[in-house]
Write a structure and sequence with these properties.
Layout: H1 18-24, E1 32-37, E2 40-45, H2 51-59, H3 69-82, H4 90-96
Antiparallel strand pairs: 1-2
């Protein structure tokens, strides 16, 4: 049984129903893959993740705590005067503990100049 239906426009475009977008986690800028599977065509979200996707996996639905510029500067100042040096391999170890371990990430994709980061 079909989840939803879409109509193809004269230009070959379709609208993805909201139920499908929710199930696949598709939003503006998402990339879809089309794959032939026998007599079927399978559409899936491509294995590329946005900053928002990674943030959602790591921190859940909660919004990050907002801080003032003065609080950020104070935190940087305290870190700088503490004399702590980053531990060798700390980033790699943090990535290994990440909930994203085993996720199919496309690390060889080309950079797209249209990507924006909202502040």
């Amino acid at each position: 049984m079909a989840i939803a239906r879409s109509k193809v426009t004269a230009q070959g475009q379709i609208s993805i129903p909201v139920e499908v977008r929710r199930r696949l986690g598709i939003g503006p800028g998402s990339v879809l893959e089309w794959e032939e599977d026998g007599d079927k065509i399978v559409v899936r979200r491509a294995g590329r993740f946005s900053f928002e996707d990674i943030h959602r996996v790591v921190f859940g639905a909660r919004a990050p705590k907002t801080r003032t510029i003065d609080e950020l500067k104070e935190g940087i100042r305290r870190y700088a005067i503490s004399g702590q040096r980053p531990k060798k391999g700390a980033i790699l170890n943090a990535l290994r503990r990440s909930p994203l371990v085993g996720v199919d990430l496309d690390l060889n994709r080309s950079l797209t100049p249209r990507r924006r980061v909202d502040l």
